[in-house]
Task: inverse folding
């Protein structure tokens, strides 16, 4: 793809009175894959990976509240509302269904899409996600909020801790000369809108509070489901991600060696080919 990446279509949809930015790559003649952002991502975070899918499929991207070009009000956010935005974007681009790929925070959104709008999915892929209540993850979530709310100096300190936490050893060694630039880019992107990180993180509390009540909905997700976990994930450990198969009984669990939490970035040589096989066959066992 050229250095100048321009969506074939882009715009916004209104959900709950708030504007969600979307981008669509393709003409609507092929199956579409929706790549769902992690917490601190935006549509542009995916640009370097469009080539992994775009030659054969259309690609749909959108920002949640607090991300990219979507609205960023300082008010409570709701993950189910982010899932509703997926359906609204599909309606806008004229797509009946799409494949959904949710990484990290995007996995929570993807699970809600499966529960609330499963009839709009062809397949569902989850990576770096949990659908069970876990004490260690709750502690990590609470600590993140303390860093976000602690002011500029504490927030910058958090960005050092964050990369140590989410990446695996091999990836850090590989990108170490670029790691400071990556970290500074994160600081610059959010230093004036830390409230968005707070609101996005706070939205996880009601999501987790309703996991048991919504369990039947997750179990009834009607499409094939693939779980791609990093074997060295310390944010959501593999033993926790394996529990997803108990929540979504027809899901298939697959572990990617040599990767921490951000599998698509750390092991693109394994993540994207595995995903493409799944999208083509719609069978997680292939």
Result:
């Amino acid at each position: 793809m050229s250095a100048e990446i321009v969506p074939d279509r882009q715009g916004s949809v209104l959900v709950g009175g708030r504007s969600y930015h979307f981008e669509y790559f393709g003409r609507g003649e092929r199956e579409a894959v929706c790549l769902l952002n992690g917490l601190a991502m935006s549509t542009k975070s995916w640009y370097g990976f469009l080539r992994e899918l775009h030659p054969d499929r259309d690609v749909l991207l959108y920002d949640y509240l607090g991300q990219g070009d979507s609205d960023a009000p300082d008010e409570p956010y709701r993950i189910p509302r982010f899932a509703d935005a997926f359906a609204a974007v599909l309606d806008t681009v004229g797509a009946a269904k799409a494949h959904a790929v949710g990484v990290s925070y995007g996995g929570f959104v993807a699970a809600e899409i499966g529960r609330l709008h499963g009839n709009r999915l062809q397949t569902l892929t989850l990576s770096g996600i949990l659908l069970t209540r876990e004490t260690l993850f709750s502690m990590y979530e609470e600590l993140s909020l303390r860093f976000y709310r602690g002011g500029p100096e504490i927030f910058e300190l958090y960005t050092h801790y964050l990369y140590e936490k989410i990446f695996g050893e091999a990836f850090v060694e590989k990108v170490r000369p670029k790691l400071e630039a990556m970290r500074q880019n994160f600081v610059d992107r959010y230093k004036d809108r830390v409230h968005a990180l707070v609101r996005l993180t706070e939205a996880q509390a009601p999501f987790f509070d309703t996991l048991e009540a919504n369990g039947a909905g997750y179990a009834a997700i009607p499409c094939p489901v693939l779980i791609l976990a990093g074997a060295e994930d310390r944010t959501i450990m593999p033993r926790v991600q394996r529990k997803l198969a108990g929540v979504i009984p027809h899901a298939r669990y697959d572990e990617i060696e040599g990767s921490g939490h951000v599998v698509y970035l750390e092991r693109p040589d394994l993540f994207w080919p595995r995903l493409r096989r799944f999208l083509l066959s719609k069978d997680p066992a292939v």
